[in-house]
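Aim 2, interim progress. The first record below pairs a target sequence with its structure tokens.
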Amino acid sequence: MTRGNQRDQDRLKAQKKAAAVNKGRKETGASLQRRKEADAEALREKQKKKEAEKATAGPGGGGTTK
């Protein structure tokens, strides 16, 4: 079990490591917006595909229930 100064030292070390990892990951507003739009478009396409599959399955739904 760590105690006293060792706990504080480990906490500082972890904070420095986390800061170094997150330092290069800043995303600009423009790139964030593009990514959000691309994600939304992918979800829309996925939803259209799912609706098309559901429409072709017919009124039975294709599943079995007990």
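The second target in this work package is listed in the same format:
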Amino acid sequence: MIRAVILLGGPSRKASYGTYEQASPLFPVSGVEIIGHLLNAIQKLPNLKDFVLMGYYDKKCFQYFQEKYQKLYGKNIRYIQEESEMGTAGGVAQNLEELFEEVEDLLVVHSDICCDLQAQKFYEYHKNKSGVCSIMTVRVSKDESTRYGCLIKDSKTDQLIHHAEKPEQYISNLVNCGVYIFNQTFKTTILNVKAKKEANLSEELQHQPYVKYIKRSTDLDKLYLSLENDVLKQAERDKVYVYEHQGFWQSIKSTSDLLNANRLLLQYYGQNPFIFQSPDFEIKSDGVLIHKSAKIHPSAKLGSNVVIGAGCEIGEGVRIKNSILLDGVEVKNFSFISNSIICYNSILGYWCRIEGDVQFLGPWVIVDNELYLRNVVCLQNCRVSKSQDGGCLM
């Protein structure tokens, strides 16, 4: 049996996408919550026992999500709330016995990714290698690689040779996807790493007490552990294997990443409509997803890569491309929207033009008639009464 653990992190302005009332992993992309896409892929594992959500959000944030997906998949979904920010391995280390109870392996997945996760193939690979840990990786461009954890593997055995988290210089275009499988032996590995960190920290503070003034708070927290920076660096290399994913993958750290993830998912579901698990939406041609309750004027032109949420109203002559409109958005006649995320219940007036690299309008934003917004971030509950080129509106 295997248990799936989704690492959620916690509240952060950087990753809130402008909607502070909503946990970032619940932000809808292609009509489904970010982590909903992951659960949909993972639940296909035939020997999956249950799901565990782990993070330092308040547990109430995920109560509706848990109930919804428990009914949908018939699998128990628990939430383990961390006391504080504990890193990508801290919460796992603190709850090892509970996580490994009645299962042989853990599938650990970061919540801020989008991919066509082939969970069964990855699991079979892990079992064939018989290693302590298997890491899912993907090839990216040379320029992009330094944004992620870079890995070098033995081309014959797939064993991990070297790992560098966000290196300053190019090392490899094979990057960590944030998806792992650990077996029971991993408990010993992570406990050894935890004990070593605690011992080193105690000794360092004893002989160099001034370090607490120059180090980050997370470096001084005995409960804080990073899978990437702490555990992988000290794990025995001959027991860690690297699985190369052949599908698409996108890390989600910003609003532009959200739009890229939306594009990739719409293409994927367009080619595989039987995989899409939201019956309230209808997949159209050219990567367009429309909620069945939305009202679209026949003269409006949508696409490519457009999602229209529940209760949206799109007026006459409107043009929308490469954008996400969440529930309740109203777009008046003859407006143009490109490369934008428009959040809940916002209203765009007549003859507006919203374009640029990436635009983000938070919930309950009103844009007056005949305005031009380019490369603008507009926070929630804001009225826009004049045109703007760049900047943040509050």
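The chain has two domains: 2-194+225-255, 281-393. This observation will shape the mutagenesis plan for the next reporting period.
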